[in-house]
Amino acid sequence: MVTIAPVEPERPEPAGPGRRSGTGGLAALLVSPTLLVLGLVVAYPILSAVRLAFFQRDDGIDPETGLREQGDVFVGFDNFTDMFTGDTAERFLNALTNTTTFTLVAVSIEVVLGVLMALLMHRAFRGRALVRAAILVPWAVPTAIAGLLWRWVFQADGVANDLLPGAPVLWTTDGAQAWLAVVIADTWKTAPFIGLLVLAGLQVISTEIYEAARLDGAGPVRTFFSITLPLVKPTLLVAVLFRVLDTLRMFDLPYTLIGPGKDATDTVTVLAFEEAVKFGKYGPASAYAVVLFLYVAAVAFVFVRLLGADVFGTRKGSR
């Protein structure tokens, strides 16, 4: 009796250190222009802002010449301590609170609406392509244009007051109604973004999993929480991370919709912009920017390290 042993395919020899180092050197050479550009447009402004955060503009009289001179004076951490104990402490803490509450409330609503949009767009029905295009239109509108559009909606004689009974609401003045107007406008614009990313996660889920769940007697609610939500969790976390980071640095929507100098809608970015452009205080403005940068970096660290958001899609078997 003749026994035929299976023939194992020949495995290619691993690349030697010479070939690997040569490939790595070529890759480094090819990406070096991109890294250089990134260093100029990203690293340089960040380092400049950090440096300016330790200086304040000093306009005075030169005792030797008697002429007025302008310059920056090193003040150490004074710009940072003034945020919490100085004359602008109350406004900064208010702006930081607004930034955080905007993020928590708006992103929470956007996640719920975005998931519902994704579930709707994932279903097969007549006119699905038209519905998908219509849902994504608000996301494609530039934020500044969206702010002006909603400013027209929230005017005293605008559409919003026409739909509400009673006396007209002054949406674009200072107060809780202004805060609510910004949340509504931001939700309208960016909920489709989360819906688009979640839809991409839904489309890679095998239908066989849903068939098995249906045969086991699982209802729609149990199927969603036991199958759909766990499988789209990596995509959903990335979408939430992007939205949180974007909302923390929100500037154009409250600035164009409500305007600057409003306690209810002041954000850290609006405050930094006013300090730099309106008052010419580049040192305190840079300090605000540095604090916001650290805040955003801490939030990103929490999402990536603690919550497991796979931003670069490098983890295998995450689903």
Automatic annotation (TrEMBL):
Subcellular location per the Swiss-Prot or TrEMBL entry? Cell membrane
Q: Where are the transmembrane segments?
A: 26-47, 101-121, 133-153, 178-202, 223-245, 287-308
Region (Disordered) residue spans: 1-20
Its domain of life reads Bacteria
DNA damage found in the keyword field: no
Matches recorded under InterPro entries: MetI-like, MetI-like_sf, UgpAE/MalFG_permease
Span of domain ABC transmembrane type-1: 96-303
Q: Does the keyword Phosphoprotein apply?
A: no
The main location class comes to membrane
Q: Which PROSITE patterns match?
A: ABC_TM1
Mind listing the UniProt keywords for this protein, alphabetically? Cell membrane, Membrane, Sugar transport, Transmembrane, Transmembrane helix, Transport
Q: Which GO terms describe its cellular component?
A: plasma membrane
Which GO biological process categories is it annotated with?
Answer: transmembrane transport
* Pfam families listed in its UniProt record: BPD_transp_1 (PF00528)
Q: Which topology term describes how it sits in the membrane?
A: Multi-pass membrane protein
Name the coiled-coil region(s). none
Give the protein family. Belongs to the binding-protein-dependent transport system permease family.
Task: Supply the name of the protein.
Answer: Multiple sugar transport system permease protein
